[in-house]
Amino acid sequence: MPNTFLRIDDLHVEIDGKEILRGLDFEVKKGEIHVIMGPNGAGKSTLANILMGHPKYEVTAGKISLGIQDITELKTHERAKLGLFLSFQYPQEIAGITLENFLRSAKNATSQTPMKVLEFQKLLKQKMGVLEMDPEYATRYLNHGFSGGEKKKSEILQMLVLDPKLAILDETDSGLDVDAVRVVAKGIQEYHHADNSLVLITHHKSLLEHIRPDAVHFLVDGRIVESGGVELIAKMEESGFTAYKG
Fold it and tell me: Which domains, ranges and CATH numbers included, belong to the chain?
């Protein structure tokens, strides 16, 4: 359908010969926010990585589509140019390149028209203001010496600057205190509108106190075992995922 941003059909994924995703089906429409929850080892991060084309993971069956385009075999940079973005659960430190230079290079690589330096700096300053980040961070090496919360803010800053069609946030809220969760939620609210979509992978409900999803999905043993509304979060808190395990 034209308003479907992401569609996954019967996806099977292996890593080092071990099957992690076992026939996963999933669909996200334009303007929607979807939440994926599940126990450790269920395949949540595998799903995030395979969506961005991580070469360590192998698709053995199934199909991933972005809009009408089959992206199953595309490289990571090709998916990024089509509008996919992944916020990492454990952001890496990269010495030698400043946050500003990294973001300007990424923005120009994924845009039709490169931004001039002053235009980009104005954009970066505005987005850093949304996240209550000191402008000085733009001159520091990417995530180098950043605290855990600062790294997560840096990831959300990347999302705001790159403005992707579909953002996948892999446990961006993990390890954050109450104030940091509030700021991350503010960044997500700044990003999201009717013409983009968001997939939030999380263990916790803290972020969902600020963001109201259109759908919640339970991922257990490599499959979506139940989908519904926010009422599923209360169900998860009460009984966990034990009932879904074989």
Answer: 4-244 (3.40.50.300)
In this prediction, the residues of the chain whose per-residue pLDDT falls under 70 are 1-2, 246
Closest CA to 217 of 42, 79, 62: 42
The residues near 143 (Cβ < 8 Å, ≥ 6 apart) are: 91, 92, 93, 94, 99, 150, 151, 154
- φ, ψ of residue 127 in degrees (nearest 5): -70, -35
**Paired strand residues for 22:** 12
239 conformational bin, left if phi > 0, alpha if psi -120 to 50, beta if neither? alpha
pTM of the model: 0.93
Tokens of 170: 């892999």
- For 151, other C-beta atoms within 10 Å of its C-beta total 19
Instruction: Tell me the two tokens of residue 116.
Output: 């001039």
Q: Report, in angstroms and rounded to the nearest whole number, the Rg of the chain calculated over CA atoms.
A: 18
CA–CA gap between residue 182 and residue 186 (Å, rounded): 6
d(CA 204, CA 111): 34
